[in-house]
Write a structure and sequence with these properties.
The protein is α/β, with parallel strands linked by helices. It has 3 domains: 156 residues, P-loop containing nucleotide triphosphate hydrolases (Rossmann fold), CATH 3.40.50.300; 81 residues, Helicase, Ruva Protein, domain 3, CATH 1.10.8.60; 72 residues, Orthogonal Bundle (Arc Repressor Mutant, subunit A), CATH 1.10.10. The strands form 2 sheets. A 5-stranded parallel β-sheet has the order 2-3-4-1-5, sandwiched between helices. A 3-stranded antiparallel β-sheet has the order 6-8-7. A hairpin with a 2-residue loop joins strand 7 and strand 8. Bound molecules: adenosine-5'-triphosphate (ATP) and magnesium ion. The site of magnesium ion has 3 residues, from helix 2.
């Protein structure tokens, strides 16, 4: 008997569309974000009558619908108009003005980018885009290493809305005055979801992903509660829902039951909450910041900690970081002799966001 011998054509999968559980799936409805979507739409609306749009900064903790709500609006906008170009860029990997310029050229289908400098590329972009209007979204904007591209777009593109997305409200305050005074953004908060809201989102997502009525009702509330316990990132909930589905499928029971959800979530509990609960409040706060800004220098993290109201001295802060490192919550790596001398880079032990599962 082989490992796959009990798989027969008769065994129906409980998944109708597993892709709906991918992190970048954009559902038809984005519940609980109506107000935010209306607001974003109102910033874009002037472009429909050839006027300049408003700029906006969206902020809020991880996994609360900032990206998905924005992408949804862009999709709707594309259906309504051919004269407004949507430009969505994630600054996590397009983190320099040059890479941003190349990406915009790619979006605009401009191919002759080789051997051209950043300024030359932006001159071409200006030429192409000023025939129309544009909505730029720079997601995870705080990951960008320079912001010259913002300055250039603000100066050179006539009819536009620039949407910047970040986890930190304080990011705007740190922005160069030269950019800030041109951007004059409105701020829009995406607050964390409560348990009922996460429950509703998961249920709706399950409607796309599973065959009808094959997830038992209590599963949603159970997974929603676990999601809240683990910080409220909806990705965690979606991930657990998929795991529960796979466990259910393996069991051959034909529907997702609470036991499957318990099994699915227990894997993640071991990984995260049990241990973080043992940390003192201040250390937990610092750990949360590392989760939000993994991959930065210790000095930057300390600044962020202060901006968010932390009042430990730098020495005590360093001690907490050392403790987190010792216990493998984070990884603190000394980099010797870089351009700014020796510094410590702070990241999560595995540099993978939940988005990459
Ligand atoms: N209101 C909602 N309706 C449907 N799906 C949602 C909603 N809010 C979040 N999600 C889903 O949860 C996941 C995380 O949402 P999203 O990617 O928008 O988070 P984010 O706020 O951009 O987080 P981050 O700051 O980490 O980038 C996505 O898979 C998204 O589809
Ligand atoms: Mg996002």
């Amino acid at each position: 008997m082989g490992f796959f011998s009990n798989i027969s054509g008769e065994q129906r999968s409980i998944f109708a569309n597993e892709l709906a559980l991918d992190y970048n799936f954009v559902p038809k409805l984005i519940p609980f974000r109506d107000m935010q979507q209306k607001y974003i739409a109102s910033c874009i609306k002037p472009l429909f009558s050839n006027r300049n749009g408003k700029n906006i900064v969206l902020f809020g903790p991880p996994g609360v619908g900032k990206t998905v709500a924005t992408r949804h609006i862009l999709n709707e906008m594309e259906e309504e108009s051919d004269d407004i170009v949507p430009v969505y860029i994630n600054c996590w990997n397009k983190n320099t003005s040059y890479k941003v310029a190349i990406e915009i050229c790619d979006i605009l289908d401009y191919k002759f980018t080789q051997n051209k400098k950043t300024e030359e590329l932006f001159a071409i972009i200006k030429n192409l885009l000023n025939r129309k209007s544009a909505v730029f979204v720079f997601d995870e904007i705080d990951k960008a290493e320079d912001y010259d591209f913002l300055y250039t777009l603000l100066e050179d593109i006539y009819r536009k809305t620039i949407i910047l997305i970040t986890n930190y409200k304080s990011w705007v305050a740190e922005l160069d005055d030269r950019i800030k005074s041109r951007l004059v953004p409105e701020l829009l908060e995406f607050r964390a979801y409560n348990r009922e809201e996460i429950n509703g989102i998961l249920k709706e997502r399950a409607g796309y992903a599973f065959i009808p009525q094959c997830v038992e009702e209590p599963v949603f509330d159970f997974v929603a509660k676990r999601t809240i316990d683990m910080g409220g990132d909806v990705r965690t909930g979606i991930y657990m829902l998929r795991e529960a589905g796979m466990i259910a499928e393996e069991s051959g029971q034909g529907c997702v039951m609470i036991g499957h959800a318990e099994k699915a979530t227990s894997k993640m509990v071991d990984f995260s909450i049990k241990k973080t609960e043992e940390l003192d409040d201040e250390t937990q706060k610092i750990f949360t910041l590392v989760k939000m800004k993994s991959g930065g220098k210790i000095g930057e993290l300390f600044k962020l900690y202060q901006d968010e109201g932390g009042n430990l001295s730098y020495k005590s802060f360093q001690r907490k970081i050392a403790k987190l490192d010792e216990n493998k919550f984070i990884s603190a790596e000394k980099i010797m002799g870089g351009s700014e001398g020796t510094t410590t880079m702070i990241s999560l032990p595995q540099e993978k966001k939940l988005t990459e599962f």
